[in-house]
Every structure is written in C-alpha cells, then in structure tokens.
Write a structure and sequence with these properties.
Elements (H helix, E strand, L loop, with lengths): L7 E5 L3 H12 L5 E6 L35 E5 L3 E5 L4 E4 L3 E4 L2 E4 L3 E3 L5 H4 L3 E2 L4 H13 L2 E5 L3 H12 L3 E5 L7 H18 L3 E3 L4 E7 L2 E6 L4 E4 L1 E4 L3 E3 L15 E2 L12 E3 L4 E4 L7 E2 L4 H17 L12 E6 L2 E7 L7 E6 L4 E7 L5 E7 L2 H14 L5 H6 L21 E2 L12
Parallel strand pairs: 1-2, 1-7, 2-3, 6-27, 7-19, 9-16, 10-11, 10-16, 11-12, 18-20
Antiparallel strand pairs: 4-5, 5-6, 8-17, 13-14, 14-15, 20-21, 22-23, 23-26, 24-25, 25-26
The structure holds flavin-adenine dinucleotide.
Organism: Svornostia abyssi
Pfam family, one: Pyr_redox_2
InterPro entries: FAD-oxidoreductase/Apoptosis (IPR050446), FAD/NAD-bd_sf (IPR036188), FAD/NAD-binding_dom (IPR023753), FAD/NAD-linked_Rdtase_dimer_sf (IPR016156)
C-alpha cells in the first residue's frame, strides 16, 4: 500500500518513542486516524526522571508528564496491551478481547526488567524499576525501611542507589562487573564512579553475583556465589531488561532480542510496520551493518520521529535512521555523556581529568575512526566530540540502505494469528462490563 494513502495508523506502546511518532505524523500533515495502545494506565512521562528526581521525592509524577502537540487527534487505549499481531489481516490483537485494525503500524513497546530467579518467591519486598508505579512503590518502601540491597550496578541500579542513599537509606550494590556502570562508561570512569559512590556511603560489592535468596521474617538475605550473605530490609533487582516483543512472536517479524528492522526502521519482512525506541534492533549504517538496540532516551525520541517519517514515506523512499547516539547518566550531581559507540575499542583520555570525573575519554574503531566517547562534566567537550564522531562516521544514503541485507533468513510470509485470541472485536466496539442503564 502506498504510504500516502494510509488512513489508519496504530502505535503500540505509549512511551516516549510512541508519543514522538504520533506527534511527527501530525506535523507531517497526516490526517488519518491515530490509535495508541498503551499498556500503562498513565499518560507518557519522562522515564529517566524516575531515578533522577521521583525516587528521592524531588519531583512529582505530574512534573514528569511529557508535553506533546497532538491537537486532539490521537485516540488512546490506556491500560490495554497488545498480545499478538496478525500481519496478514493487518490487525493487532489486544488483551481485552478486541483487535485494532491498521493500515500502518508503529511498534514502540520498550523493555521489561529482567527478574532474578528466586527473588520474587523470597519476598514481595524485592522489586524491579521501570515504571512510575515501580518508582513510587520503591520510594514508599525506602521510607519505611533502613536498608536496601540493589542487585545490578548499571545505569538504573547505580542511579537508584544514589537516590536512595541521598535520602538516608543504607544501600548495598552488588554487581558482577569490576565497577559500577562498567558496560556503559567503560572501566576508567567506572572506577571513578564506584569510588564516588563509596565516598557517599554506598556499600559497593563488585565481581559478585547473587546465587540464592533466603527468606527471614522482615529481612531479605541474598547469598552470593562466594558464600557471603548480605542482609537488607528490601531489594531492587536492576540487572537489565529485555525488549517487550513477545507479542510479535508468530507474526512474521524476527522478534529475538528486539524486533529486527532494516536501516529505515521498517520491520524486516513486514513493509507496513516500523519500530522505534528500546525494542527496535536496527543497523546504524553510520557505524556498521550489524543490527543493534540502543537503550537511550534521546535515541528513542529521534527514532520515534524517524519511524513516523519512514511509515509515511514507504520502504523505498525512507531514509536510513543513522544518528550519533547519545545518552547520559547523572549520579551525585555528576553528569556523564555516552556518545556514539564508546565501548567499540579501548578508551583513551582526550580532555581534562577523567579519573576525577571532570574530563573525556574517546575511542576509535579498527579503521582508526573516532566512533565513541564518554564525557564527565564537560558539556562543551561533549558537543564537540559528538560533532567529531558524526564527521568521522558520515551519514549513509538511500543506496547504502537499499544494499543492506538482514543477517539471518527470516520468514517472509506472516504466520496466521496465534490461536486462543479469537474472536477479537475491533477497537470501535466498546466492551460492556455492566448492563446499560434503562
Ligand atoms: C529508571 C530509568 C532511568 C533511565 N535513565 C536514563 C538516563 O538517565 N538517560 C538515558 O539516556 N536513558 C535513560 N533511561 C532509558 C530511557 O528511559 C529509555 O531509553 C526510553 O524510555 C525508551 O523509550 P521507549 O518509548 O522505547 O520505551 P518505554 O519508555 O519503555 O515505553 C514503552 C511503553 O510501551 C508499553 N508496552 C510494552 N508492551 C506493550 C504491549 N504489548 N502493548 C501495549 N503497550 C506496551 C510499556 O508499558 C511502556 O509504557 C532510563 C530508563 C529507566 C527505566
């Protein structure tokens, strides 16, 4: 179907990527229907603000709400999750028994935190952190208890640890890596950040994993692989997340570790479906041809907008999505930028004093191109390095996108809709839960 004739676009996922996609459709003059299926009951909000403000009570949920120019054009289906995709019939199957017909579909379902085996069974005072409800629950728990164990010292774990500790809670972080944020900022800034956390009173245990949980009344006991035990009143499991794409199984899309897209964000095998944000795995041809996911706010914003363009332009005319990705983390008042592909090679200092969290490190790939950097508290250097990475790794064009081929064969023909979801009724039918009043 020519993209210009689209009259009904469904967006699955009401996070920032889905929201920005809707906004862009309207900006582009698309005047058909837009339906957003959003599993969370809340309007879209600024997820990074959960650890940078909400957890320590500095901001309210209302202050995190995202603004968007939607001009009353979007129909929201809050608290409804997609459970399947019948790509042949062009409809999304919903968990309330309805289905959403579409002409164009935007997949923007983000991520779900990974659970740690045994943790839930141990006690309900063990939780994960992805949504505003998770953050409010953790905040309430932290106010009631004296100590919290954080399992995982990546971006979410380390930011949450700082927020909880700053609020007066005793915090222990356990991570398998040699430093906090090792896989986000590399070893050198990782060491500096770990020291900063320790100076502020966070107990950091590195090179360790939780092997088992012991349940004692009012206390959690995590047993580490080396036999050590850590006791706490509550625990946060922050060991990463996996893409929320289970509902795309059997749809014809390759939904292993994110939904596989081509360079334009079109889902491989499904020409009228695009994907964006954390759940999308796509080749950023600025760097290489290997599909990868990026879990960063700014990329989700840009990709949501790009996916809307790609859907309207169609697979032949759409441009490749090839940003220089950038993300940030803020802990104990120190802001760090991650630019491009910082961990593609070994990082070397290029500015200031990175060991004191005031400087920059950069990395080159095997061809000697500047491909990534991490920058602490040097905003101007960060902007300059971002530009320099863009210049060293130039934007691809339509020809590069057309030449790209998916790495593994995927089934071209969408499979039939999963069994057990029929009969589904369209969105337009409202389900009645109580008899209408006479
Ligand atoms: C606590 C926290 C702190 C962060 N801090 C930073 C930071 O400092 N810097 C940074 O760059 N990035 C940060 N991030 C990452 C950033 O928030 C994400 O990259 C961004 O939110 C991704 O946007 P998205 O729209 O792709 O996914 P999401 O924001 O996850 O939105 C996806 C939405 O889809 C919904 N959904 C899922 N499945 C379905 C379904 N089947 N049907 C319907 N709806 C569904 C989900 O409920 C969710 O509301 C942080 C993330 C977290 C969790």
């Amino acid at each position: 179907m020519s993209a210009h004739r689209l009259r009904l676009i469904v967006i699955v996922g009401g996070g920032v990527a889905g929201l920005r996609a809707a906004e862009r459709l309207i900006e582009r003059g698309y005047d058909g229907r837009i339906e957003i299926v959003a599993a969370e009951p809340h309007a879209p909000y600024r997820r990074p603000g959960l650890t940078e403000g909400l957890l320590n009570g500095h901001v309210s949920p209302a202050a995190l709400r995202l603004r968007a120019r939607l001009e009353g054009r979007v129909r929201w289906h809050h608290g409804v999750a997609a459970v399947g995709l019948d790509a042949r019939a062009r409809r999304v199957l919903l968990d309330d028994g309805r289905y959403g017909p579409y002409e164009g579909l935007i997949v923007a379902t983000g991520m779900t935190p990974r659970a740690l085996p045994g943790a839930r069974r141990a006690t309900d005072r063990v939780q994960t952190l992805r949504t505003v409800d998770d953050a409010l629950r953790l905040r309430t728990t932290a106010r009631r208890v004296r100590s919290v164990l954080v399992v995982g010292g990546g971006l979410v774990g380390a930011e949450a640890a700082a927020a909880l500790r700053a609020g007066g809670t005793a915090v222990t972080v356990v991570d398998i890596a040699p430093t906090l944020l090792h896989d986000a900022v590399g070893p050198r800034l990782g060491v500096a950040l770990t020291e900063l956390h320790r100076r502020r009173g966070v107990h950091v245990v590195t090179g360790a994993t939780v092997q088992a949980w012991d349940h004692a009344p009012g206390e959690i006991r995590a047993v580490l692989r080396d036999g050590r035990e850590i006791g706490a009143d509550a625990a946060l499991v922050a060991i990463g997340a996996h893409p929320d794409v289970g509902w795309l199984q059997d749809s014809g899309a390759n939904a292993i570790d994110g939904v596989l897209c081509g360079p334009t964000t079109h889902v491989v095998g499904l020409d009228d479906v695009v994907a964006c944000g954390d759940c999308a795995r796509w080749p950023n041809l600025r760097f290489d041809t290997v599909p990868q996911r990026v879990e960063q706010w700014a990329t989700a914003v840009a990709m949501g907008r790009h996916a809307a363009d790609a859907l309207l332009d169609g697979p032949r005319d759409a441009r490749p999505f090839a940003p220089v990705p950038w993300g940030w983390t803020e802990q104990w008042g120190v802001r760090i930028h991650m630019l491009g592909r910082p961990l593609a090679g070994s990082l070397g200092a290029v500015d200031g004093d990175p060991d004191r969290l005031r400087g920059a490190l950069a990395t080159q790939d095997g061809d000697g191109r500047l491909v990534g950097a991490v920058v602490a508290e040097r905003p101007a250097v960060s902007v300059a390095l971002h530009r320099a990475i863009g210049a060293a790794c130039p934007k691809p064009d339509l020809t590069d996108a057309a030449a790209w081929r998916p790495p593994a064969p995927v089934s071209a023909a969408p499979a039939p809709a999963p069994r057990g979801h029929e009969p589904h009724r369209p969105f337009v039918e409202r389900r009645r839960t109580a008899p209408a009043a006479a």
